[in-house]
Write a structure and sequence with these properties.
By secondary structure, the chain is mostly helical. The protein is built from 21 helices and four strands. Strands 1-4 form a two-stranded antiparallel sheet. It has a two-stranded antiparallel ribbon with strand order 2-3. The longest helix has 43 residues.
């Protein structure tokens, strides 16, 4: 393979449908199918999750106005990193870019941890991949069989991204379309089912899972641990709202591929909004259907069951299992594909501009793709199968903080650019100011423990991952210190 390190551009080969598929495929991943039982229902219930997701979608649409303004200004791979570089200088650009890599790249291993569960859940034996050597991480058993399958898929999709963006985009479009069909089918089934009466959805605001499990609570007495009162309801909503940057991260992957658009940038805002709205629908629908179909969903949650799969099976029998199998497989694979593309383009852009070692900026001359950046992404992503599914929450937290930083710099860059260029509208200025405020609010909720708000901020393992990522970033930063200390 011939490679080149000269500054070049990527091939323009992505149509609007491809770009929507990349954004939507990134927004909806494994978490939309597993978090109803792991996070959403216990922390926020049906009502809290629905309100949080709708509010989160509205905030993301507000922030999307800033992206729609900035992309035509700087139509290059790099997105938020490029915006920050033009408006706030080298150091802030590196900070933004490095944490955006965390936001995008952590989603790949997060999705890969689901592959084994998909096979076991659909197979029904729960042990088809449990062979070979195994060990435990945070109480979860990890087997060689699960690791081999997940690693094989990670390597395969990395290779697909290397051999051409058109091939990767076609696969992504097929996966995202199938995902929408499965989600809509499950939603319609839940709505017309006699079981979806609403009486099964209590406690509507969720409950204190740790206390309920310690007390041996069941569905019959779960109300004793339910979130009630103003403080409880606010806490329930914020517990899910705080991770909205993770839930919707992916719509902002669109600017990362701006160099590869073969259409007008005026379509960017519409594509972003559609991806966000579809994402909100899938998150809310999966969570609501799971509770509505299971009269004893609190018991299922505390037992660690995959409640979305169990609900689909109760509604549709064997077809329900197949439906969820196809849907979650599409979500996982489209997430891997989309975030591979976003991560590699971002790292390529940073290397091309001198912010990372030149090795990351090398383009494969035959396929016109950032080959070395993709290889790095694959290597980092292999941590997912090694750490196992209990690392899911850690990756969610890392993604949320990285996305929040990217949103902050995009909205702030919009304000700076509008003032400098003398364009924009009062409406856009207001949207950008709101975007800055909410971005800061997300970071505070994620990083700082607030009395009375449980289940909102980082866990200990997430703080450790954050420190590791910061240290790795500092290594790259000081390796290129001459670049950062030189004149702009």
């Amino acid at each position: 393979m011939q490679e080149t390190t000269k500054k070049t551009t990527l091939q323009r080969s992505l149509n609007p449908m491809n770009v929507w598929a990349i954004a939507f495929g990134c927004v909806i991943g494994w978490g939309s199918f597993v978090n109803p039982g792991k996070k959403f229902l216990p922390n926020s219930g049906v009502a809290g999750t629905a309100i949080a997701m709708i509010l989160g979608a509205l905030v993301m649409i507000i922030i999307a106005f800033s992206y729609a303004y900035m992309v035509p200004k700087y139509p290059e791979a790099g997105g938020e990193f490029t915006f920050t570089k033009k408006c706030f200088g080298k150091n802030n650009a590196f900070l933004c870019g490095w944490f955006l890599v965390a936001a995008y790249l952590t989603n790949v291993p997060m999705n890969s941890t689901a592959i084994g569960l998909i096979v076991d859940g659909i197979d029904g034996t729960a042990d088809i991949l449990k062979f070979g050597f195994h060990y435990s991480v945070a109480g979860f058993e990890i087997y060689m069989g699960e690791m081999m399958l997940a690693m094989g898929i990670l390597i395969l999709f990395g290779w697909l991204n290397i051999i051409g963006v058109q091939k990767a985009a076609f696969v992504q479009t097929v996966l995202s379309t199938l995902l929408v069909i499965c989600a809509v089918t499950l939603c319609i089934t839940g709505l017309i089912s006699a079981k979806a009466t609403g009486i099964n959805m209590q406690p509507i605001w969720g409950f204190d899972k740790a206390a309920a499990m310690a007390a041996g609570a069941t569905t019959e007495n779960i109300g004793e641990f339910a979130h009630t009162g103003t403080a409880g309801i606010v806490s329930a909503i914020l517990a899910t709202f705080a991770i909205a940057p993770w839930a919707y991260v992916g719509f902002d992957a669109i600017p990362q591929a701006a160099e590869e658009f073969n259409f007008s940038f005026r379509k960017v805002s519409f594509i972003m909004v559609i991806a966000i709205v579809f994402g909100c629908f899938v998150y809310t629908s999966n969570n609501t259907v799971a509770a509505a179909a299971l009269a004893n969903w609190p018991d299922r949650v505390m037992a660690g069951e995959w409640v979305v799969l169990v609900a689909a099976e109760e509604l549709l029998g064997g077809f329900g299992k197949v439906l969820i199998g196809v849907g979650v497989s599409c979500a996982v694979l489209s997430g891997i594909m989309g975030f591979y593309l976003a991560s590699s383009r971002l790292m390529y852009s940073m290397a091309r501009e001198g912010y990372l070692p030149k090795w990351f900026g090398r383009i494969n001359q035959k396929y016109g793709t950032p080959q070395n950046a993709m290889i790095f992404c694959v290597l980092v992503s292999l941590s997912g199968p090694i750490l196992g599914r209990e690392a899911l929450g850690w990756f969610v937290d890392m993604c949320a903080i990285g996305a929040s930083i990217g949103y902050f710099f995009t909205a702030a860059s919009t304000l700076v650019t509008m003032k400098r260029d003398g364009d924009g509208t009062p409406f856009l200025k207001i949207m950008a100011i709101i975007g800055v405020i909410f971005s800061v609010a997300f970071m505070v909720l994620q990083l700082i423990p607030i009395p009375g708000l449980s289940g909102v901020h980082f866990g200990n393992e997430s703080y450790i991952l954050l420190v590791v990522w910061i240290v790795l970033g500092l290594i790259f930063y000081f390796r290129e210190r001459r670049f950062f200390t030189s004149a702009e």
